[in-house]
Amino acid sequence: MPEVIDHDDDGVVEWLLTAGLTGIDATSPQHVADPAVTVPLMANGLRSFHEIDPTGCPFDYQIPVALEHVARRVAAGGISADGLHDVHRDLDPTSAFERLGELVVDEHRLVVCHGDYTPPNVLLEGGRVVGYLDLGEVGVADRWRDLAVATWSVTWNFGAGYEDLFLHSDGVPPDPHRRDLHRLLYDLES
Q1: Which stretches within the chain are classed as H helix?
Q2: What CATH number does the domain containing 108 carry?
Q3: CB 181 within 8 A of CB 67
Q4: N or C, which end of the chain has less CB nearby within 10 Å?
């Protein structure tokens, strides 16, 4: 764990400054050039993250909490169709929220989720994950909260065909329904 140098909370923004972490993010040229190695490393890093005991985690990102957050954003006009990913562009904010409600399923494996597990937020060194960045959305949620985004971003950063490798490396079978639920949720929360 890196040394905490400073932190503050001004009532609007909380921030934490730590000593530098070692490693190079997974979007560096050397990692992008070898996705067959990088993707399994990222999957192993996520599996390690999900092994953290969620019992004492004070942050809750379970479905009911996430739906309330999205409902507030929709009501306040904080979501625009233009800001949604291409796969959701046919939806306006209201219909996207309705679609989200149709996709909701019981959460089946609650873990401590990173919240934005994407290649730029994963530091690699010596053939393993050595650090995580952008932990502003960390919290207890269904593990598919991370898996849906991680597999999506692996495709964005490394190209088609690596989503299955990520899931296989993490030991998780594909679940298109949970994937779609959490990708839409991610799109509406961002």
Answers
A1: 29-32, 35-50, 63-75, 93-103, 144-158, 163-170, 176-189
A2: 3.90.1200.10
A3: no
A4: N
For tokens 């952008």, name the residue.
Answer: 134
What band does 15 get if pLDDT is binned at 50, 70 and 90? Answer: confident
Quote the tokens at residue 1: 């764990």
Q: Could you tell me which of 42, 89, 63 has the C-alpha nearest to residue 181?
A: 63
CA angle (158, 164, 167) in 5-degree steps: 105
Q: Which amino acid is at 138?
A: V
Other residues' Cβ atoms within 10 Å of the Cβ of residue 114: 26
Q: What's the whole-number average pLDDT of the chain?
A: 94
Query: What dihedral angle (degrees, nearest 10) is formed by the CA atoms of 139, 143, 148, 150?
Result: 70
- pLDDT band at 50; cut points 50, 70, 90: very high
- Which member of 8, 10, 34, 116 is catalytic? 116
The pTM of this model reads: 0.90
Number of domains, the chain: 1
Q: CA 176, CA 169: separation in Å to the nearest integer?
A: 17
Location of structure tokens 């490693």: 23
Q: How far apart are CA 26 and CA 134, in angstroms?
A: 14
User: If DSSP codes are grouped into helix, strand and coil, which group holds residue 15?
Assistant: strand
Q: Is 116 a catalytic residue?
A: yes
Structural domain harbouring 92: 4-189
Residue with tokens 């921030």: 15
